[in-house]
């Protein structure tokens, strides 16, 4: 009971939280629980449970929003398809940083990637009445599966941990060959494990998507944040890896939240492959006004969800993208701090008996970045998560992400400040002292 945070208070708060099993608590439930403990004890946690940007937003975006507000745009509805200047800059961004050609009309701003994913599920999973829903390459963002549940769409998942490299082909084909799935979903870099698919793996995904007529939803929420490769120079290789190099059946989710530290303004984009944007799917007419995928996405899915993205915010992101596209703002350099934090924090965990769960991309150690995963010998993820709360450390269980590594937790480094490193090291040492076998 001699723990850094009062044992009795933590126990009481856990009991009163309404969370039956801490190992299955959602991110937002853990945020509330930890905030309650902090308020009661007056002690600050090492908060790693939620992926919140920890850096200030770019000034160029803020100034553009202020200018737009003063011009009176707040009283006007934005065009549902997005501001022309924003669509233009998204199109340029995709070319300059992914080396993929798209026109502005293929780029639709959304209220964050959350809305983008919801709209894609609504659309893609209804392109063929004989297919059932989505296949997730896990671990992944838990809310995307919740979105499928809310929509009444079926989905299946598999943990990619044991199926890297060539092994991915056989595993993926064992699902796709059933012709049950309309969409295939993954994030790259991955939330929560921070693994990154190699070009070999992306080629496998792309070729199988083409073979089985499945449309890929590639979530690039952490665009450019695999810091092993510098993709920050517009128009010069290396580029952000993407499945769009290997199939025509792709959609991309690109978010301003993490790479541009603009999470609070809720803006992102869905980019749809030109080859499927105008493709017709007769079964869409069951729900939407057109058989054409791009038209139905815009006027059948996005329109009823929000009737457009905040007018002012579009001006802000357009300005940031233009600055990045013109080489005046290096967005990757700004977020590189996350990699430095992860390197320091992972070292502390490893020195105190912890292990990294998802540790390699094929044969290469994973990058240091926004997230990392860890475990402690002899404990399940649920046990470890609950015990760490008594030591003033919070994270989330990998179980809720679709991972089969049930001993593991996900840590997000973004909210941790260098001034907290000493506290983190002390608390990890105390934990290891009390729990080492």
Write the CATH fold name of the largest domain: Aspartate Aminotransferase, domain 2
Strands, count: 15
Strand order of the largest sheet: 2-8-7-6-5-3-4
The run of helices and strands is HHEHHEHEHEHEHEEEHHHHHEEEEHEEEH
Rounded to the nearest angstrom, the distance between the terminal CA atoms is 17 Å
Separate helix tally:
15
Sequence stretches where pLDDT stays below 50 over 5 or more residues: none
Oligomer: single chain
Rg is 22 Å
Helical content (DSSP H or I, runs of 4+): 40-55%
What would you give as the CATH superfamily of the largest domain?
A: Type I PLP-dependent aspartate aminotransferase-like (Major domain)
The CATH architecture of the largest domain would be: 3-Layer(aba) Sandwich
User: What is the count of structural domains?
Assistant: 2
State mean pLDDT (0 to 100 scale): 96
Largest sheet: 7 strands, mixed
Describe the structure.
The chain is built from 15 helices and 15 strands. Helix 1 (7-16) crosses helix 2 and helix 5 (112-124) packs across helix 6 (142-151). The two termini are 17 Å apart. It folds into two domains: 7-55 and 336-435, Aspartate Aminotransferase, domain 1, CATH 3.90.1150; 77-325, 3-Layer(aba) Sandwich (Aspartate Aminotransferase, domain 2), CATH 3.40.640.10. Helix 8 links the parallel strand 5 (181-187) and strand 6. Strands 2-8-7-6-5-3-4 form a seven-stranded mixed sheet, sandwiched between helices. Strands 9-12-15-14 form a four-stranded antiparallel sheet, with helices on one face. A two-stranded parallel sheet has the order 1-13. With 437 residues, the protein is α/β, with parallel strands linked by helices.
């Amino acid at each position: 009971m001699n723990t850094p945070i009062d044992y009795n208070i933590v126990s009481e708060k856990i009991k009163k939280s309404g969370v039956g099993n801490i190992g299955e608590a959602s991110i937002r439930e853990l945020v509330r629980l930890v905030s309650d403990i902090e308020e009661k004890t007056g002690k600050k946690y090492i908060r790693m449970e939620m992926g919140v940007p920890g850096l200030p937003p770019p000034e160029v975006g803020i100034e553009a929003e202020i200018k737009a507000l003063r011009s009176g745009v707040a009283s006007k509805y934005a065009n549902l398809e997005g501001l022309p200047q924003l669509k233009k800059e998204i199109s340029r961004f995709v070319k300059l940083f992914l080396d993929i050609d798209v026109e502005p009309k293929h780029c639709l701003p959304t209220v964050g990637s959350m809305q983008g994913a919801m709209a894609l599920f609504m659309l893609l999973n209804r392109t063929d009445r004989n297919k059932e829903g989505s296949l997730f390459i896990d671990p992944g963002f838990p809310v995307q599966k919740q979105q499928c549940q809310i929509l009444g769409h079926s989905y299946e998942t598999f943990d990619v941990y044991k199926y890297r490299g060539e092994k991915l082909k056989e595993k993926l084909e064992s699902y796709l060959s059933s012709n049950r799935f309309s969409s295939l979903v993954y994030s790259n870099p991955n939330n929560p494990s921070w693994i990154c698919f190699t070009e070999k793996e992306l080629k496998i995904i792309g070729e199988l998507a083409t073979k089985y007529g499945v449309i890929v939803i590639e979530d690039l929420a952490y665009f450019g944040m695999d810091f092993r490769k510098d993709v920050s120079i517009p128009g010069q290789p290396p580029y952000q890896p993407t499945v769009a190099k290997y199939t025509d059946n792709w959609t991309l989710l690109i978010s301003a939240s993490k790479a541009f530290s603009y999470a609070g303004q809720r803006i992102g984009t869905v980019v749809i492959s030109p080859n499927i944007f105008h493709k017709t799917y007769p079964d869409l007419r069951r729900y939407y006004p057109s058989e054409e995928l791009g038209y139905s996405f815009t006027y059948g899915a996005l329109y009823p969800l929000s009737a457009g993205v905040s007018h002012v915010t579009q001006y802000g992101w357009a300005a940031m993208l233009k600055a990045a596209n013109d080489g005046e703002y290096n967005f990757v350099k700004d977020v590189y701090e996350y990699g430095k934090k992860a390197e320091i924090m992972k070292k502390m965990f490893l020195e105190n008996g912890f292990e990294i769960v998802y540790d390699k991309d094929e044969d290469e150690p994973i990058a240091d970045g926004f997230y990392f995963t860890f475990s402690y010998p002899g404990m399940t993820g649920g046990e470890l998560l609950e015990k760490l709360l008594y030591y003033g450390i919070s994270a989330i269980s990998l179980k809720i992400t679709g991972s089969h590594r049930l001993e593991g937790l996900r840590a997000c480094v973004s909210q941790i400040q260098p001034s907290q490193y000493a506290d983190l090291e002390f608390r990890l040492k105390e934990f290891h002292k009390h729990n080492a076998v």
